[in-house]
Amino acid sequence: MNTHARDAFGHDTTADEVLEGIDLTGKLALVTGGSSGLGAETARALASKGARVVITARDLAKAQSVLADIKSATGNQDIAVEELELASFDSIRAFAQRFLEKYGALDILINNAGVMACPKGKTEDGFERQFGTNHLGHFLLTTLIAPALIKSGSARVVSVSSAGHRFSPVVFEDVNYENRDYEKWQAYGQSKTANALFAVGLNGRLKDHGVEAFSIHPGAIPTDLARHMSEEEIEGFRQRAESGEMRLKTVESGAATQTYAATAPELEGHGGAYLADCRICTVDDTIDGLSNDGMSFVSSYAIDPEAAERLWVLSEEATGGRLAV
After folding, report:
1. For residue 122, what pLDDT band results from cuts at 50, 70 and 90?
2. Among 91, 92, 80, which Cα is nearest to 28's?
3. H or E segment to which residue 68 belongs
4. Is the Oxidoreductase keyword given for this protein (predicted)?
5. The domain 9-316 belongs to what CATH superfamily?
6. 24-34: per-residue pLDDT in tens?
7. Please, which residues bridge with residue 260 across strands?
8. Which of 14, 66, 75, 279 is found 20 to 30 A from 309 (Cα to Cα)?
């Protein structure tokens, strides 16, 4: 694909389209939450370009079916699945040890897995479920396998955030909702802001080691992520979509921005950025995050370097994760 066409990427661009002309032969990619939805489509797209792909999943039987589908669709047999529960630090540590023993340099890490708007609950280690799974789980995973990223010499880390980050900044004084009423969408927003800030903090620490980090909003896509939504909430989203207030994406177009962030040569040197619709977003603190315009911008608090540093310290203390650099 020529440069002009790459400049034209947008809302409806698919993962296959952003990979046109890109050869990933010999590259190793790790996609968390790869057994369904955007993770499965991202893994398929990367595999179609020759990448070796490892997907993680809680349900290995379901993941094995996805693996078979990817192999059949792409002809690439170098696809593997590993068990990982991001709500358990023990599971993350066990996975990281297995991964580092089995594999060499890691070229692409897509922190895709997550939960959304779930009832109040805690992870195995006692953290609010959405913050603990979406952010702390990926923080610990990434810090533990960072040696493989550094070994690559030219790696990308993609954190799947959301326009939902506009629902809340990280409330550092009470990330676990111990002293305030729990609100599931606010908690989701906090975790998605944390995903974006993590990319800022990670990029600052690893860019001199050949690793760049990005965060992205994939778009509004009907997937299993919405399993905790009520019928009323689903109907509200449907009405916004039908009115044109909120444009939906297919799974193929929903996987595009994270695939783009992981592979686009034109993003080199832009680590720490937040992307949507396969382009770097500008800051706007005034627009509704669920409107079409809102999905194309990022809130300043989600890419603030000082907040990123504060979150990093909190995350190290919570997980015990440290970068070995």
Report:
1. very high
2. 80
3. helix 60-74
4. yes
5. NAD(P)-binding Rossmann-like Domain (3.40.50.720)
6. 999 999 999 99
7. none
8. 279
- Look at the alpha carbons of 82, 176, 202, 160 in this order and tell me if their dihedral is positive or negative: positive
Q: Which one of 103, 182, 188, 301 is the catalytic residue?
A: 188
Q: Which two tokens stand for residue 75?
A: 């002809």
**In this structure, are residues 289 and 163 in contact, taking their beta carbons and an 8 Å threshold?**
yes
172 within 8 A of 192, measured Cβ to Cβ: no
Distances (CA, A) of 39 to 67, 151, 184, 285: 12, 24, 23, 29
Range 154-168 burial, b when 16+ CB lie within 10 A, else e: ebbbbbbbbbbbbbb
Q: Can you give the residue ranges of every domain in the chain?
A: 9-316
Instruction: Note if 103 is an active site residue.
Output: no
Q: Which two tokens stand for residue 212?
A: 């760049």
* Tens of pLDDT, residues 178-215: 999 999 999 999 999 999 999 999 999 999 999 999 99
Cα separation, 273 vs 174, in Å, equals 26
